[in-house]
Amino acid sequence: MASGEGERRNCAVCGDRATGYHFHALTCEGCKGFFRRTVTRSTGLTCPFAGRCEVNKIQRRHCPACRLQKCLDAGMKKDTSRSSVRPPPAFARLGPRTASADALRRDQHLHGAANHQVHQ
Amino acid sequence: MASGEGERRNCAVCGDRATGYHFHALTCEGCKGFFRRTVTRSTGLTCPFAGRCEVNKIQRRHCPACRLQKCLDAGMKKDTSRSSVRPPPAFARLGPRTASADALRRDQHLHGAANHQVHQ
DNA sequence: TATAGTTCAGCATGTTCA
DNA sequence: TGAACATGCTGAACTATA
Ligand SMILES: [Zn+2]
Ligand SMILES: [Zn+2]
Ligand SMILES: [Zn+2]
Ligand SMILES: [Zn+2]
């Protein structure tokens, strides 16, 4: 269980608590979602301060341009080979997820762990 | 000399450290599991780069299609044969089935210049 | 002992909703 | 925007079997 604990897992972009590796970088959920949304749209973001904004947990929302830049600096990138080429299966879901199908799927992995979220 | 270490056994597919022969080829645990899972569920994998992806330890996850192709090129195959009580050396040396299919695949794969570089 | 099969925590990425 | 959830894939460790 690595009681060492000395190793804090912080987001490489804003320093918030990281939940794991996302897009090849250790980041928090916020920067993960931000990157996914932003990198595709790439709406010519421009920083009003010549890209000198600090990106931390508090101010990360203030300047998307600098946040995105820091994401890229941290090594984040979309895996072009493995994305958008496989989503077909779980689409076209009209109502609430049918517990039956989902349960069936998840049952395969629910043998021992109740939730396979990142422990912490 | 339990671990002379001088002789490194590398995976024929990705070059990672091999753990032994798996499905008739010297491979690592990763490619072993990948092949077992994929060869049966061959869900029409397609490479977004015309099958010219390099398959090494770092990038082997990027393109399943090319990874599987390299597995087959390395001679990997499920031994779905009958009793499987023993691996007969004279394994259907008369059947053109494997030879032709194999050659065909290899031909398709090794056609263009392998100079194509994938991201990263 | 060696290889094939099984398990499962973790990774990658997308979706939902407050 | 981001926490929570959904799913498929990966591979180290383990088990089964010859
Ligand atoms: Zn962050
Ligand atoms: Zn800025
Ligand atoms: Zn390998
Ligand atoms: Zn490929």
Keywords:
two-stranded antiparallel sheet; 120 residues; homodimer; binds zinc ion; mainly alpha; Erythroid Transcription Factor GATA-1, Chain A; DNA-binding; disordered C terminus
Explain the overall architecture.
Two copies of one chain form a homodimer. Chain A is mainly α. Chain A has one domain (20-118): Erythroid Transcription Factor GATA-1, subunit A (Erythroid Transcription Factor GATA-1, Chain A, 2-Layer Sandwich). Helices cover 27% and strands 5% of the residues of chain A. Chain A has three helices and two strands; from the N terminus they run E-E-H-H-H. Chain A has helices at residues 29-41, 64-73, 99-107, and strands at residues 20-22, 25-27. A two-stranded antiparallel sheet of chain A has the order 1-2. In chain A, a hairpin with a 2-residue loop joins strand 1 and strand 2 (25-27). The longest helix of chain A has 13 residues, at 29-41. Chain A is globular. The model of chain A is unreliable at 1-7 and 84-120 (pLDDT under 50). Bound molecules: zinc ion (4 copies). One zinc ion binds at residues 11, 13-14, 16, 27-28, 30-31 of chain A. Chain A binds a DNA duplex (18 and 18 nucleotides) through strand 1, helix 1 and helix 3. Chains A, B: Its main location: cytoplasm.
